[in-house]
Write a structure and sequence with these properties.
Strand order of the largest sheet: 1-2
Radius of gyration: 24 Å
CATH superfamily of the largest domain: lambda repressor-like DNA-binding domains
Distance between the termini: 51 Å
CATH class of the largest domain: Mainly Alpha
Number of domains: 2
Largest sheet: 2 strands, antiparallel
Strand content: 5-15%
Number of strands: 2
Helix content: 55-70%
Length: about 120
Amino acid sequence: MSRQIITQDGKPAFVVIPIEEWRRIEATLEDRADAASVRAFLKHPTETFPDSVVAAILDGAHPLKALREHRGMTQAELAKASGTSSVYVSQIERGGRRAGRRLRAKLGKALRVEPEVLDRADD
């Protein structure tokens, strides 16, 4: 491998390598990062969701609605499980109201997800 070492104040500061070599190094680093992510997931697995849930959220559905429907719950069932009204759940899903921190925690518990999963990007 050819390389050029650039010094600064008499000490090595930079290395210049051919682009092909850099791409090989970059691919190796990416592969190692991916492998580390997989190992971390396998060590502490979390629930994954079907593409349909993710697609619904990306298409604009509120995460609360997408996850509620994924769990097969009605708004009334979710409201009862989280101690609120179905009208409030409906308003949150339509974007008319926001769930406060405590309610979001109760909704997350009822849906078996971390409360942060229920946050919308535009909230």
